[in-house]
Structure formats: structure tokens, C-alpha cells
Specification:
Elements: E1 2-7, E2 12-21, E3 24-34, H1 46-69, H2 74-79, E4 83-89, H3 93-110, E5 113-118, H4 119-125, E6 147-152, E7 157-164, E8 167-173, H5 179-189, H6 196-204, H7 229-241, H8 249-278, E9 282-286, H9 293-306, E10 311-313, H10 325-335
Parallel strand pairs: 1-4, 4-5, 6-9, 9-10
Antiparallel strand pairs: 1-2, 2-3, 6-7, 7-8
Helix pairs in contact: 1-3, 4-10, 5-6, 5-7, 5-8, 6-8, 8-9
The chain binds 5'-O-[(R)-(carboxyoxy)(hydroxy)phosphoryl]adenosine and zinc ion (ZN).
5'-O-[(R)-(carboxyoxy)(hydroxy)phosphoryl]adenosine binds at residues 10, 153-155, 180, 183-184, 195-198, 201, 287-289, 291-292, 321-322.
Length: 356
């Protein structure tokens, strides 16, 4: 199966080509462009993002054609494709629409199958991409499911029970801010720019994570929901009170390390408890925040100590943040079930929740 996939749910314009034969990836190309324009606003501006997608996506697609067929020729690329896929939700409505409308136009013009992919399912499927731990399990693997998935990104913090591809049950979700948002907002308060996650972890490396005791909301509650807005507020008041210290790099590093520790503590405690209660065989970490080294290391360590028989799977760093390769991978598993969308009626679904 040969899949062309498109991702435009937030501020990355991306396209990928994935060719899978008998459970093996035999060809793989992908391109992603991050919209730098949002840095000056300190966050993603939806209308600006959609306009940027409209102008960038055609260039990304011709660049992909160049990689796959050796020339920027869309028709030649079309002849090499069986399925066209795009992220249909969740995400920013106008951004999603650029990707979905492009995909439906290509599918209709080329007379190919069409699949609208759930962005969260895409993040999860990054664990099956080339070089990722589950690449060899594309054709199926014994002892993998049920799996517990922690998806943490700028827009989502979710714990899902995955019984198989396409079979999810939502165990918990954030009630306010996502984990990535907590990183981004803390970074903004510390004057570290956008996106904040990478900046916080860079500064945290040289800081003391035990220096300031920030709240760990809902960490010990029996349910699996998250809440990060209280942490954000606590950091805001603290930084306002101590604002003259912001000029001191040691202070910034210590706050960054303490915030990172608070977020990681909550995510790891809930994930380990959910894994124990659901008796899963595998725990999969995914989403932009999965690029956080402290989170990866702490979750791996605590799972190994408390549930040594559970396999821990984390995607390579390069596939954690938004990309189209993961959307192609999710489309492959959907296509394998024979469920396709109709180019005449497909709609974006900005609030699409997986597993509800
Ligand atoms: O998955 P993603 O690219 O976009 C969404 O679907 O939201 O995730 C982006 C989020 C941002 O909030 C960013 O700050 C966060 O992932 N992030 C990180 C790191 N790298 C990216 N957060 C913590 N540590 C990191 N190293
Ligand atoms: Zn994402």
C-alpha cells in the first residue's frame, strides 16, 4: 500500500509518503515545515496558521514529489499513490480545513481512496514508524495489546487504553491546560520564548528540580484526569513575587527544573497507576511532550521498577512533535480495515476525541 499523508492541524505543514508491503516499510519520505511566524506572537494565531498552510502546503507537496518521483510533478506522484490521507481533527478548524480540502481534491482528481485521520491516533502510530520500536510489529505482534498510551502535546494530555489498532477507550483527559501548554506558559513567564517545552528542558538541565515545591494537581486522585492550570497560576504568582530574580540565570534554571519536575511527577504517577490497574502489556508514550528527556527517563525507570514485565515504548525524538509520517502510519492501519472516507462529504472535526 502506498500512502500520501498530510498534516496541518496546528502550526506544522507536513506531508509524507509511505510504502508498506507485507508488513514492511519499503519506502519512506517526509517533509515538515514549522511556521516560525508564531514565535513573535508567543503562541499560535489560528488565522495566521491557516494562511501559512495555504501557501506552504503546495511547496511541501512538490518537494515530496521531488523526493519520491525525482521531479516536482504532482501527477507523477499521484500515479504512485493508492491512498491519500489527512488529519481531520482534533486541531484548529481553519488549519485542518487546508489539509483536508487538499487531500479530498487530490483523492478526487487522482481517483484514489481517502482517509481522514485522528491526530492523536497519529501520535500513537509514530511508535510504528521507521526506526521506532514497533516498526517490526506493523504486520502484527503477539503480546503487544492491550496497551496503555500517554499522549502529551501542546493541545492534549490523555491516557488511553488501546485494545488494538482503531480500538481505544479514553481513561483520562486534561480538564483544563494540556501538559505542553503548561510547559509553554511557564516558559513565557520566565521569558524563554515559544515553543516553551524545549526551552524549559534546556534550562532545567542546569537547575535544581527540588528547589521550589510547585503543586502537583490531582496527582493522588483515584481518577486518571489531569489538570495543569493550578500549576500555571502558582508559577505565575511565584514569578511575579520574585520578578527581580529573573535576571539571575540560576533562578530561571531552578524554576524551569522545578516546573518540569512537577509536570513529570504527575504524568508518571498517573501513567504507572493506570498501567497497574489496567494490567496492560505495553505502555506507549507519544506527542510533542514525549520529546522531554526527563519524562522519558523517569517513566522508563519507574515502570521498570514497579511493573518490570510491562514493555515501555517511546518513539524516536524526531517523530514526537507534529509530522505527517505518523498520519500516514495511522492511515495504513485504518486502510487495512477497509474503512475509507468519501471526498464529497468528508468534514474536519476540530473536537474529535479518540476513545469516547
Ligand atoms: O505534538 P505537538 O508538536 O503539537 C500538538 O499536537 O500540540 O506538541 C507540541 C508541544 C508544545 O507544547 C511543546 O512545548 C512541547 O510539545 N514540547 C516539549 C518538548 N518538546 C516539545 N515539552 C517538553 N519538553 C520538550 N523537550
Ligand atoms: Zn500533535
Amino acid at each position: 500500500m502506498r500512502i500520501l499523508s498530510i498534516e496541518t492541524s496546528c502550526d506544522e505543514s507536513a506531508a509524507a509518503y509511505l510504502e508498506i508491503t507485507r508488513g514492511r516499510i519499503v519506502r519512506f519520505e517526509h517533509l515538515v515545515a514549522t511556521q516560525a511566524i508564531h514565535e513573535k506572537y508567543g503562541g499560535v494565531v489560528p488565522e495566521v496558521a491557516a494562511r501559512e498552510h495555504s501557501s506552504t502546503l503546495p511547496l511541501i507537496l512538490s518537494g515530496l514529489a521531488e523526493k519520491v518521483v525525482g521531479k516536482p510533478d504532482g501527477a507523477a506522484l499521484g500515479r504512485r499513490v493508492d491512498v491519500v490521507a489527512a488529519t481531520r481533527g482534533p486541531g484548529l478548524v481553519t488549519s485542518l480545513k487546508v489539509g483536508v480540502d487538499t487531500a479530498r481534491a487530490l483523492a478526487a482528481a487522482w481517483k484514489k481512496k481517502l482517509i481522514g485521520v485522528n491526530h492523536i491516533e497519529g501520535h500513537i502510530c509514530s511508535a510504528w514508524l521507521p526506526g521506532a520500536p514497533l516498526e517490526a510489529a506493523i504486520g502484527g505482534a503477539k503480546g503487544l495489546f492491550p496497551a496503555l498510551v500517554l499522549v502529551v502535546s501542546g493541545g492534549h494530555s490523555e491516557l488511553l487504553l488501546m485494545r488494538n489498532h482503531g480500538r481505544y477507550a479514553l481513561l483520562g483527559v486534561t480538564r483544563d491546560d494540556a501538559a505542553g501548554e503548561a510547559f509553554d506558559k511557564a516558559a513565557k513567564l520566565l521569558g524563554l520564548g515559544y515553543p516553551g517545552g524545549p526551552a524549559i528542558s534546556r534550562h532545567a538541565k542546569d537547575g535544581d528540580p527540588a528547589k521550589y515545591d510547585f503543586p502537583r494537581p490531582m496527582m493522588r486522585d483515584p481518577h486518571f484526569d489531569f489538570s495543569f492550570s493550578g500549576l500555571k497560576t502558582a508559577v505565575r504568582y511565584f514569578v511575579q513575587r520574585e520578578r527581580e530574580k529573573l535576571a539571575d540565570p540560576r533562578f530561571v534554571n531552578d524554576v524551569a527544573a522545578s516546573v518540569e519536575q512537577a509536570i513529570v511527577d504527575v504524568l508518571v504517577a498517573k501513567t504507572v497507576r493506570a498501567a497497574r490497574q489496567t494490567r496492560v502489556k505495553t505502555v506507549i508514550l507519544a506527542g510533542g511532550v514525549a520529546a522531554n528527556r526527563k519524562l522519558r527517563e523517569t517513566l522508563a525507570r519507574d515502570l521498570a521498577a514497579e511493573l518490570p514485565r510491562v514493555r515501555f515504548v517511546e518513539p524516536p525524538l524526531s517523530y514526537c512533535t507534529d509530522n505527517a509520517a505518523m498520519i500516514g502510519m495511522a492511515a495504513f492501519f485504518r486502510a487495512s480495515t477497509g474503512k475509507f472516507d468519501d471526498p464529497r462529504t468528508i468534514e474536519v472535526d476540530p473536537g474529535w476525541e479518540l476513545g469516547r
